[in-house]
Design brief:
two-stranded antiparallel sheet; disordered N terminus; 220 residues; paralog of FGE (formylglycine-generating enzyme); 8 strands; 5 helices; alpha+beta
Length: 220
């Protein structure tokens, strides 16, 4: 079976076709597919909670869908003084790229080519799982925000549109908006091309994976 090498390392055509079909189906149809394959059970823990490759104390939590990320933000807000939520796409972009709209979170170097293996946790680093937060300091932003490239994809609260619309990417999409949500940042198994601060991905709100997590913002 042919192996696709360009951006999907070690992914065969059959798997790619399945993933492509799943990413394109509507929310309601995806929910029905989940019930038909998983049953109407309720998940009370993140998908990889008992997987030793992903559940160490300093690793980011992964295997959470958009709804689970929202639920955590609401719980955190109830426990601490302040309101915590998922960032909009524009807020995430501002934190990662800064006012100068950096190509990478740490700057514009290398201007051509991709980061070295020690800079971020990506396919090139060969870890094949998430890494403890903060162990790739070369990839930090100038303000010291870590892991905004690589390690895990991060949910944004903005709905996805084909064009980057300023009127959409800085808006928290209501729950009744059934469009896909934006993922940013890339992950541990991703080619470096997709770690640029401007890269964005579209995923169904019900989807969870061992490379998807989130970070929260606190409203002042």
């Amino acid at each position: 079976m042919k192996i696709i090498k360009k951006y999907f390392h070690e992914v065969n055509e059959s798997d790619l076709e399945i993933w492509t079909k799943r990413s394109e189906i509507k929310e309601s149809k995806f929910d029905k597919w989940l019930i038909s394959t998983q049953g109407p059970k309720k998940n009370r823990l993140p998908r990889e909670w008992f997987n030793s490759s992903f559940n160490q104390p300093s690793q980011p939590v992964v295997g959470v869908c958009y709804y689970e990320a929202l639920a955590y933000c609401r719980w955190l807000s109830s426990q601490l003084a302040g309101k915590y939520r998922l960032p909009t796409e524009a807020e995430w972009q501002a934190a990662a790229g800064g006012l100068e709209n950096r190509r990478w979170p740490w700057g514009n170097s290398p201007a051509q080519g991709f980061p070295e293996a020690f800079t971020v946790n990506s396919y090139k680093s060969h870890l094949r799982s998430t890494s403890p937060t903060g162990v790739f300091p070369s990839g930090d932003t100038p303000l010291g925000i870590y892991d905004m490239a690589g390690n895990v994809w991060e949910w944004c609260s903005s709905s996805y549109s084909d064009q980057v619309d300023k009127n959409v990417c800085n808006v928290i999409a209501p729950l009744e908006d059934d469009r896909n949500r934006v993922l940013k940042g890339g992950a541990w198994g991703i080619h470096e091309h997709n770690l640029r601060t401007g890269f964005r991905h579209s995923v169904s709100r019900s989807f969870s994976f061992d490379a998807i997590g989130f970070r929260v913002v606190r409203e002042l």
